[in-house]
Amino acid sequence: MNVRLKIKRFNPETDKKPYWKEYELDMEPKDRVLDALHEVKWTQDGTLSLRRSCAHGVCGSDAMRINGRNRLACKVFVDDEMKTGKGAIMIEPILGLPVIKDMIVDMEPFMAHYRAVMPFLVNDTEPGPRERLQSPQDRERFDDTTKCILCACCTTSCPSFWARGEYVGPAAIVQAHRFIFDTRDQAAEERLAVLNEPDGIWRCRTVFNCTEACPRGIQVTKAIGEVKEALRTGVIA
Amino acid sequence: MVHHHQFDALVVGAGGAGLMAALHASKTVKTAVISKLYPTRSHTGTAQGGISAALGNMEPDKWEWHAYDTVKGGDFLCDQDAVDIMCRDAIDAVIDLEHMGLPFDRTPDGKISQRRFGGHTNNDTKQAVQRACHAADRTGHMILQTLYQNCIKQKVQFFDEFQMIDLLVADGKCNGIVAVCLDTGELHVFHSKGTLLATGGFGKMWKVTSNAHSLTGDAPAAILRRHLPLEDMEFFQFHPTGVYKLGILLSEAARGEGAVFLNGKGERFMERYMPTLKDLAPRDICSRYIYKEIREGRGVDGKDYVYLDFRPEEINKYFAADGNPRRVTAEYMEQKLPDIIEFARVYQGVDPMTAPVPIQPTAHYAMGGIPTNNDAEVLADETGRLIEGLYAAGEVACVSVHGANRLGTNSLVDLVVFGKRGGIKMAEYCAKAAFREIDKAGAATYAQNQIDNLRKGDGTEEPSKIRKSLQIMMDDNVGVYRTGPGIQTAIDHIHELQERYKKVRVQDKGMRWNTDLMEVWELGALLDLAEVTAYSALARQESRGGHFREDFPKRDDANFLKHTFVWKNGKIEIKHKPVVITRFKPEERKY
Ligand SMILES: Cc1cc2nc3c(=O)[nH]c(=O)nc-3n(C[C@H](O)[C@H](O)[C@H](O)COP(=O)(O)OP(=O)(O)OC[C@H]3O[C@@H](n4cnc5c(N)ncnc54)[C@H](O)[C@@H]3O)c2cc1C
Ligand code: SF4
Ligand code: SF4
Ligand code: FES
Q1: What average pLDDT score do residues B285-314 get?
Q2: Which end of chain B has a smaller Cβ tally under 10 Å, C or N?
Q3: Strand partners, A25
């Protein structure tokens, strides 16, 4: 099928500001948008730059704004997006992080927020020679938030984050949730304290953009709600 | 401008093997991790089904059984001393991961849950045993996240999005690496006492593959260019269950939970070939029989695929037929295999809960790679001489614990066991060794020339056409079934492509994030690796594990019970190293 891409281009070595450029391609309907971008890169313009690796939605490299919604390019299809885009697929970098080149943004501010919530298990008791025990129910409690691949689709779709980049953002809260509700962990209070700061969780206005954007289907807003509840009540349940 | 850094220890690659090594090395010596991807995007994150260890949480199990299964699965080409280390240490390694925070699935009494996997058996009853520890079907994701989390906790130093393109070796000793900073395009020399390579697999030389775009074998190519050998390159695993045409993996965990293969006539054909383990026979065997069915006209609609059936009611029928009291429900399957069920829905448009899924074998795993001893120290040749200061671990290395065919779940074990051993060994070495002098001004010259030639060249050969042509040739002639003439055709074609590559086109002439240039550089690496793979395959005139020669369909222990070492110094040179055999004498593989 005939596919039109409108790509927001920017090369820091030659361009003063970003501009839109159109490309026409012949693709299979079930080719992914990532395939279409590769087709442009490999047959029309090698300078088109993007990150990608796994090509099946698990490494989190190719988050971009496709027809105005944050998606992994390897997980959406050209026929669907041609329909959504009414005849052309609009592709631009995710919003709220500094653009370096084409789809490539500076991930460091995002990673700094991630590191701030202490994203690692803290448990200072001697574990003994075998595994720590955990019931299937206790394990299930934080299952959803273990799926996060740090793609940044959520944080860069969040109006609160666009308004203020210091806001810790939904991805970091998801990561905090994964540990706060893990019965083996002992640092919930420290994490909650970080999230209770002015640029912490209270900047979330419950707009649900993040949940809609998550390619792993994580109930992001629900997880945020549970952390807020823990802060309000002082009870981790 | 060339930048200079000095670290006691370097780890190149931030997948499971690299992070494990870094966690251990950085405890005692100044360590840096260099990775072309953000660590959490490494391919370890795609591993699905599980990591084996004879914990015995579900039923009796012993690490000695795990060792025997590994050796038999590897068609007796594994070095058995290394296999013993891996299977024994697997138990502590998995417990360690749990202590680090890994959220394994749990049994009702709170222990780590385990499932069946291909080739893993109770050696007494010969039946499949539940040995694969798992976190749903995202075990690799959880390992990668857990190790990275612990690196943050331990404040390990990372150089993210730095791509190694050369290794500094002089007088048989390694002094570090040269890398491109992808953001600036500038070269960085990392001078070190010890360097551990953990860059993962190189499946991108095939078209249908489960491997990521980034798995291009940069480090093994650098090894060849520095006149060092690679081991057992003819052994590459084709996993039986890739999503048709795309190659995306549907984990063996599906069959562990009860799924079966069906041919175009709806027959459960593995029953005919491997009456005991059936659909849970090792991967090389399943892949061969899938193609046998297809060649004999029993593919689906006469096409080149068969079905993987994991509809719950069908699975329960097969369980009943096998006299297995287990029963599954759709809810259970969705909980145990959420990701692969989603892959089938998203990428194939098929709901595995209501219809069988079209699958075909997919290029998956490199058994061969950079030769090492049991402490991850890199070998300079087939006699066991070492290259001082150089280590390798993970998929890029060949210890060899996987022999001619890796069992499912054994790669993740390999990463954590040998990543740790390598990290510790390297740190011990760095603590007592001194930095060797390097020629600071000239260290980056070879790397710089490679990059400059590509950037400044005015070639017209399209890299994507060369890549595609290589991949199709490898699928057709160096795949599941091989013949001497077919492999020779591939070699001739690779040589032609290497000639065309000399005039390759790089359109992006810039410095920053020049992914065009780096992709072309990676293509050069793939061409070199494909060449040594094909030559190694041509020389091995027998069939063993993942290497099946139609013109030599039998295993030939008299002539080929030995490892291949291949060099590419102007021309190809092949030598051999004996296999370490301790408890398990080679026997015919029946399942
Ligand atoms: C879909 C899939 C499912 C799998 N499931 C299982 C399973 O259930 N059980 C199992 O045991 N095994 C499984 N495997 C195999 C296993 O996942 C891999 O063999 C293993 O993860 C490889 O780990 P690694 O650490 O060696 O390399 P990787 O995780 O691939 O990491 C390689 C690292 O090297 C870096 N790198 C590469 N080149 C360079 C360079 N030039 N410069 C700097 N850095 C570089 C990358 O950035 C990356 O960080 C699976 C594999 C696939 C593809
Ligand atoms: S729910 Fe909160 S975090 Fe999510 S997008 Fe809305 S404001 Fe942002
Ligand atoms: S929560 Fe979802 S959208 Fe956000 S970073 Fe994690 S995987 Fe991506
Ligand atoms: S390329 Fe890995 S998520 Fe898209």
Answers
A1: 94
A2: N
A3: A3
Report how far ligand 4's centroid is from the alpha carbon of A20 (Å). 24
Chain B residues inside the 8 Å CB shell of A216: none
Indicate the CATH number of B445-557 among 3.40.50.300, 1.20.58.100, 3.30.70.100, 3.30.499.10.
Answer: 1.20.58.100
Q: Which residues of B touch A71 (CB under 8 A)?
A: none
Q: Which of A54, A104, A131 sits opposite B46 (nearest CB)?
A: A54
pLDDT, one tens digit per residue, over B269-291 is 999 999 999 999 999 999 999 99
| CA nearest neighbour of B366 among B255, B204, B133, B509 | B204
Domain covering B239-363 assigned CATH 3.30.420.40 in the classification: no
Q: Is A139 helix (H, G, I), strand (E, B) or coil?
A: helix
Domain residue limits, chain B: 3-41+141-237+364-432, 51-138, 239-363, 445-557
At B78, give phi and psi (nearest 5°).
Answer: -70, 150
Confirm if B141 and B46 have CB atoms less than 8 A apart: yes
Percentage of chain B exceeding pLDDT 90: 97
Predicted model pTM: 0.97
- In this predicted structure, the answer to whether residue A206 has a pLDDT above a threshold of 90 is no
- Residues with Cβ within 8 Å of residue B112, at least 6 apart in sequence: A131, B55, B57, B94, B98, B104, B105, B106, B133
CA B224 – CA B163 distance, rounded (Å): 17
Q: How much is the pLDDT for A191?
A: 97
Average pLDDT rounded to a whole number, residues B79-105: 98
Chain B: give the shortest CA distance to residue A229, in Å: 23
Could you tell me which of B176, B273, B214, B240 has the C-alpha nearest to residue B43? Answer: B214
Paired residues of B504 in beta bridges? B461
| Virtual torsion, Cα A229, A233, A235, A237, nearest 10 deg | -40
Query: Does residue A61 sit at the B interface (CB-CB below 8 Å)?
Result: yes
Whole-number pLDDT of residue B326:
93
CA distance B285 to B281: 7
Q: How confident is the model at residue A149 (pLDDT cuts 50, 70, 90)?
A: very high
**pLDDT score of B12:** 98
Mean pLDDT confidence for A159-181: 97
Q: Are A181 and A235 in contact (CB under 8 A)?
A: no
The highest-level CATH class for domain A2-105 is alpha beta
**B472 - beta bridge partners?**
none
CATH level 2 (architecture), domain B3-41+141-237+364-432: 3-Layer(bba) Sandwich (3.50)
Per CATH, domain A108-233 is 1.10.1060.10 = yes
Q: For ligand 1, pick from B177, B199, B246 the residue to mutate: most ligand atoms within 8 Å of CB.
A: B199
Asked if B378 and B371 count as a contact pair (C-beta separation under 8 A), the reply is yes
